[in-house]
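User: My advisor, Dr. K., asked me to get a structural model of this assembly before our group meeting. I'm new to this, so sorry if the format is off. These are the inputs:
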Amino acid sequence: MIASIRQSLRRKVLLLVLASTVAALALSALGLVIYDLRAYERQWTNDLNTQAELLARTSAAALSFGDRETATRDLGVLKVRPRVTEAAIYTREGELFSTYTKAGTARANFPQRPEADGYRIEGDDLLIFRRVVEGSEPIGTIYLRAYYRPWDRLFDYLGILGAVMIASLGVAALLSGWLQRAVTQPILDVSRVARQVIDHHDYSLRAAKNTDDEIGELVDSFNAMLAEAGRRADALREADRRKDEFLATLAHELRNPLAPLRNSLEILRMPEANEAMRDKARQMMERQVAQMVRLVDDLLDVSRITTGKLGIRKSLLEVQAVVRDALETIRPYVESRNHQLEVQMPSQPLTVEGDRTRLAQVFANLVHNAAKYTDPGGYITLSLAAEGDEAVVRVRDNGIGLAPESIGAIFDMFVQVDRSLERQQAGLGVGLTLSRQLVGLHNGTITAKSEGVGKGSEFTVRLPLAGATLPEPKAQAPRPRAGQRRRILLADDNADFASSLAAVLSARGHEVRVARDGAEALAAAAAFNPDFAFLDIGMPKVHGYEVARRLRELPATAECVLVAVTGWGHEDDRNRAREAGFDRHLVKPVDAADIDTILESY
Amino acid sequence: MPRRRFLRMLLCIAAGITAATALAQREAPEASVKAAFLYKFANYIEWPANAFAAPSAPLVIGVAGSDEVATELERIAPGRNVNGHPVSVKRLREGESPRGTHLLFIGRENAAAAAMLRAARDNAVLAITESERGLEMGSAINFVTAGDRVAFEVSLEAAEKTGHRISSRMLAVARRVVPKAS
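Assistant: The format is fine. Below is the predicted structure of the whole assembly, which you can bring to the meeting.
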């Protein structure tokens, strides 16, 4: 392929140079020939006129005094003008007085009578007539006949032009060879390097740069592109490797809780197990399930990060409250590792605009990391302070610290600082990535610093303070009567989920009906007249949106509280659910606590 | 091209007329040829600075001793001019001074040719003779006969004495040229 390119490029360059050379030469030759033929005629006639004039003056006396010999002698000077073939002097009366014929001319062809002054072209000859004047009196006429062959001259020109053209084409061929070396060779080099890179995946190859012109610029750009492509290939490989590691970790992490769960189930099944053993088994199951839920939540967040659908809902928040939320969830873990946790917060409230759950997640994650990467019995501090117009949260530990070279990478997806440590709570390596994304969505920053390995680390989150302060909390709405008996319709094609949830809700004194698809849900609703309907969206026969719309149309269920249950918490889903008539929206997995919250708010 | 055809027609007519005249001249006696030559010589002669009183003053050709030539000249002179000088003819009697003439033709019949030549030289008049030894006698131009043709010879020496210069073109036609006195 390169050979054919070289051929075609060389041919094009050659053609270009040859075509322009030929065109330039032909045009200039045409112009020259036209100019020269005109100039030739003018010059030749002027020349002959001058000759005729001279002869007229010289031979005036001879003609005047009737001296033919002298006149013939005068005409004889024409033998030095070989192109003059014949000449004659006519008397005033128009008779031939004297003649001249060039030696070797076959047949003289003197006009019978002289003509008026001037010249004319007759065939290949130029004829000149010139009056001979004595004093002011005309006494005769000079006649000259000379070769006039512009075609001869034209052919001479064409010959010269041909020679010049051949020489020029030779030069042009040389030039095009030079051009080929100067222009196409570097391009071919670039092409060859590109081919090698593609064949061998070696991004360290570079095209040689020999000139500083446009070609050099092309080579530079090409090399820069190679460097960039190399960086990207490396980054892709790295990302791929991390994803593989992540998958291995994920499988491991998901597998881990299953053994204790199965063991606990065995204990519960054993008839000889006493109540204390059963209770212990239940607690173990709860812990392990909580761990799995946390893992799967992380997974969902990872998916949202990679698809760019991680969203937050902002409202005015007091940072102290968010920190307290975070500590509430993380304190049991910190205590389980026997760490001492010190919290410093200013007394006056710091307000930011943000998503309370997500920010709490960030702070909890930082404390969780601190606890995880510090050997048991460590010391962790969390401090909150206002610095300028920012709220700054610092989480410091005296744990394993960070190597300087890894500080930049720890926020990348799936990176874990110390994979070699077979820590029980290894996690998925997405916490800091998620945290950085979340803080970014709050227009904040998150940074890490460490004195070095073994010297502890410090993470700092900076969030812009909101200008407005938190509005006074509204008067507490009267809490719904706890334990009130509700009529609840659960519609979900997952029978296990529906029936287990129904069992929990029934145990709390509610009246519950279960439907396995949309049609059943509509039928049940008409007969049962529920206060609440929890509807799965992706149901067979009639999907959740349709069910909701029909329920809204029925007088019996027009006032029913409709709750959509979906696998995805995207804003689109929420909007669609609202349009279909849903009052609330829950993201799977739904547990009894979520339902309690909704039941209590009505 | 009607214009050119018209010109040619005109030329033909003119040529016809001149041919007729030439026919008459060829048969003309020697005297008329000499008269024509006399008149033509004037075209090839450079006159002394004071020869003419005015640019349009007449060129006077004196004729002594040749009634035939004088008659011919008188016939052809009217209406002719040489370099703006109208040509006139003056017959000179024997012994009459050539003063006032520019050219003096001394015919063969003139007995006192030598005296006339002297008078011509004294009055800065270019003398023309038609005798065999004309130049030796002191004339500037002398007619000779070559076969059936009238020819002439020139003495630059004599012409220089009277302050005249003769064109080399005329010398080219002369039978013989006596050079200037060195």
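One thing worth pointing out at the meeting: Chain B touches chain A through 26 residues (CB under 8 Å).

User: Perfect, thanks a lot.
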